[in-house]
Amino acid sequence: RRSSRVFCYIIILLYAERRRKRRRFWVHPIITRREEHGEFYRLIQELKMYHERFRGYFRMSVSEFENLLQQLAPSLTKEQTHYRKPIDPEQRLAVCLRFLSTGDSYRTIASSFRLGVSTVASIVRETCDALWHCLRDEHLPVPTEEMWRSTARRFHERWNFPNCLGAMDGKHIFIQAPANSGSLYFNYKGTFSVVLLALVDADYRFLVVDVGSYGSNSDGGIFANFGLGKALRDGTLNVPPPSELPGAPELGKANHVIVADEAFPLKPYLLWPYPGRRLPTDKRIFNYRLSRARRISENVFGILSQRLRVFQRTLQVQPSVVDKVVKAACLLCNYLRPKGEDQNHATEDDHDCEQPLQGFEHCRGQRASVEAQNVRELYKEYFNSPAGEVAWQYEHVNHAL
Fold first, then answer.
1. How far apart are CA 336 and CA 169, in angstroms?
2. pLDDT in tens, 144-167
3. Least packed by Cβ within 10 Å: which of 51, 148, 307, 380?
4. What is the pLDDT of residue 372?
5. Model confidence over 299-312: pLDDT tens digits?
6. H or E element, residue 170
7. Cβ proximity of 193 and 173 under 8 Å
8. Is the dihedral of CA 339, 341, 347, 351 positive or negative?
9. Is residue 338 predicted with pLDDT exceeding 60?
10. 3-state secondary structure of 2
């Protein structure tokens, strides 16, 4: 009886093996004609002769593409084997940039470039890794004291906010709900996401980024566990010591601060607006001046979404790949915006995504230390003094009433 059961089991396995779909091709005929009809070998080579169309296709110029390729080529070059010809670095970079600039699915890009879907997935993942490792030291280095001083100087020159180390905000990157993740990635907007927390400078460049936190977490909670938040608490971030505000030595020395919105805690190194309605004029002026500097972070997120439109769609990839994509995208934005770039040279994408100043009627009050409140009071006093005021602030505040 036992032998008959074993025999039946073998028969069932053989039947299942026969019914299993066999692989028809080692390489599909469509893919074998890649060099004849693939998008990289035909359309992209023609686009190099029409620079405006090339910029619209890849969201960068021909020279920027070639310079980027030169830096990434050693990391993207694959070893030649006897089985098949490897995909060259230029085509790998083109596939990745096309994914970032459009957000098209892997299947759509695979059809256009005549590649396998799994091949496109591995190319995007590996190229994003290469972008991060090759460009990080140059375009997103660990801030030094001199970098902080330069950032504070630029914020004073461009946005009339002295001793400012940067503007900070969070952005939800929408993703397809990962399997068996429950509500970890479910955010207050009713979608699934991971959070990009970024500190940006006065010239629309990323200074520090943190990505990968669950969408269900708040910006303040992420900041508390963020390396930047811990380093600021511990005083290990090379932040310059307190210094006098320009033209107001009588106010004493003021901390260098980061500007943010009410989602973050009020700290001696982190300022956000006064909450509530019907505020006195001096507090409304402080809120206006802080918002004028803080909105740079929102503008940067707008520039990121306009330049790399993958962020205008829901990413259909695993969270680990989302992290790689977001970090590579932040580096690319810095790469495409040279240091100290003047506002007059902003691109059309940049102007399309500048955000208007917002009101503060819905700001929530939070408990803060006396030291943090004193720092905010000092800046409020400075912005209402002859040394710190700007001509248009009273008109703007009165007009907003």
1. 21
2. 999 999 999 999 999 999 999 999
3. 51
4. 92
5. 999 999 999 999 99
6. strand 164-174
7. yes
8. positive
9. yes
10. helix
